[in-house]
Amino acid sequence: MLNLINTFINSPLDQFESQTFFSIFTPFMDMNNFNITTFALYTFIVLFIIISLFMFTNNNNMIMGSKWFITQEMIYDTMVNTIKNQMGGKLWGFYMPFIYTFFMFILVSNLLSMIPYSFALTAQFVFIISLSFMVWLGMTIMGFYKHGLVFFALFVPQGTPLVLVPLLVLIEMMSYIMRSLSLGLRLAANVMAGHLLMIILGGLLMQFMSINILTTILGFIPLLIILCVVMLEFAIAMIQSYVWTVLMASYMKDVQYLH
Amino acid sequence: MQLVLAAKYIGAGISATGLIGAGIGIAIVFAALINGVSRNPSLRDTLFPMAILGFALSEATGLFCLMISFMLMFMGA
Amino acid sequence: MKRFPTPIVKPLWPFFIAAAVTYYGVSKFADAYGNTDEYINDPRNPRFAKGGKIVDLTKNKETMEE
After folding, report:
1. Cβ of B55 under 8 Å from any chain A Cβ?
2. Whole-complex ipTM
3. How far away is chain A from the Cα of B15, in angstroms, using its nearest Cα?
């Protein structure tokens, strides 16, 4: 618990370090997975925010929602329209809660990481890439269970001449396998690069503005530029969650209906 | 091995030039959006979400290159 | 708060299997990565909390030279 004393930031990468706040001494079994680290703490904060967004806005579970509940309805309607447009067919309703969960988690944790001195959950590469790998592997298992060996018909686009088929199947299979990695890598790389850029620019501007009074006044112009970068980061935080959702719905459509 | 350390930093700097492709790709996507909207202002329904999706996908490939730069700088023995 | 009976196991069972496979795989990978030559003596390694000692890396080189 004494890790809280060292709060200096020595390198721009320190913001992504995960510190342990609370761990139990278990000499016989490796229960290190149940430590309370910053990662666990921020996951609890995200859960608390998502639950309280629902609990504090519905007015006593009445059917006619309050004006605050319109935010939740907006997010829900965006998700329903997106998934219905992407997937379509008869099966979009079964997978809607799953995709909605991902959207809310990534949106809230991205926006939570924009608070200064906070921790970016979605910038943890191993977490996000293993999450996208789990999604991809689950979809592949579902495809093989549902279609059997006809699942490989996904790799042949419609109307290709028979000569090109072996080469095309290899290329499409490579592209399909890369989906597992790229879905998570896109999110983690965007968030990590954005946060790293903001910290480096902020540190440099702080050093520049603390030289003397002339540079303090002169330093308001780069501050406006950094403000634009921060606004771009807010937009990217929300866009990345939407992109994850759209791509997940599109992959689900590929697997369920075999285009 | 100071040479390896110097080579790491030089490599990290050179590999950041891959982001030129990301910049051009994003500009192409939004140029297509402006073209499409100016011909037929059905913006809010169909074109804008596709433009946002295209922006994020094109930015992603640029950031794959930036990840190689980060890997060279902050990782590896 | 009411719990509605939305089906979670019936449409989403492959994701549970994939989550178990991913958990197993990442755990094995993390154990193997923590025992490579670079990180085997790092004090944050959970090996030390269970009574492991510092591994002398020059010992391997001695057995190879003989």
Report:
1. yes
2. 0.85
3. 15
Phi then psi dihedrals of residue A21, to 5 deg? -95, -30
Residue C19 token pair = 């989550």
| Contact state of C2 with A145 under an 8 Å Cβ cutoff | no
> For chain A, which residues make up each domain, given as ranges?
23-254
Strand partners, A37: A20
Q: Sketch the domain layout of chain C as residue ranges.
A: 8-65
* Cβ-defined contact of A243 to B53 (cutoff 8 Å): yes
Q: Is B9 on the interface with A (CB under 8 A)?
A: no
* CATH number of the domain encompassing residue B66: 1.20.20.10
- For B1-65, strand residue ranges (E) read none
Mind listing the pLDDT tens digit for each residue in A143-185? 999 999 999 888 888 888 888 888 889 999 999 999 999 999 9
* Contact predicate A109/A121, CB 8 Å: yes
- pTM of the predicted structure, to 2 decimals: 0.89
Minimal C-alpha gap between C53 and chain A (Å): 15
User: Given an 8 Å threshold on Cβ–Cβ distance, is A137 in contact with C26?
Assistant: no
In the structure, what pLDDT confidence band is assigned to residue A2 with cuts at 50, 70 and 90? very low
Q: The dihedral of CA B52, A241, C12, C31: what is its sign? A: positive
Domain range enclosing B22: 1-74
